[in-house]
Amino acid sequence: MHDKHQDRGTIKWTSLMLPEHVEMLNQWYEAEKDVEKPLLSSDKLEEMQRTITQAIEYKQKVSLFFYEAQRIERMEGFIKGAGMGKLEVENRDGIEFLPFEAITDVELIE
User: Fold this and answer.
1) Mean per-residue pLDDT for 76-82?
2) Are 65 and 103 in contact (CB under 8 A)?
């Protein structure tokens, strides 16, 4: 027998839910995306230091991955300098300062 009814998942139940319940579900879905800050090995830290030094010296564009608000974020730009525990990064939005302890990876962009 052919089933004419197609299940719409949670969509069909949303109209029966209170707005507070919908908000709680949305928060729960977002919390599922949260990650813990990775612990970096000394080898990884040295590799990142070499990449940062090369990027500054040769004015190469980089992708910086950093931990913020329980997520790994990505920023592209040029590292203008380092000091006071932060990297000075010029990107399309202007100059941003990224704390060293937040950085989880650095990659050169060819």
Assistant:
1) 95
2) yes
Q: For residue 56, give both structure tokens.
A: 């500054």
Complete DSSP assignment for 60-87: -EEEEEEEETTEEEEEEEEEEEEETTEE
Angle at 65 between CA 41 and CA 96, to 5 degrees: 125
69 — alpha (psi -120 to 50), left (phi > 0) or beta? Answer: left
**β-pair type (71-83, 86-91):** antiparallel
Distant-in-sequence, close-in-space partners of 98: CB < 8 Å, separation ≥ 6: 64, 66, 75, 86, 87, 89
> What is the length of the chain?
110
Mean pLDDT estimate for the chain: 87
- Residue position matching structure tokens 């040029």: 78
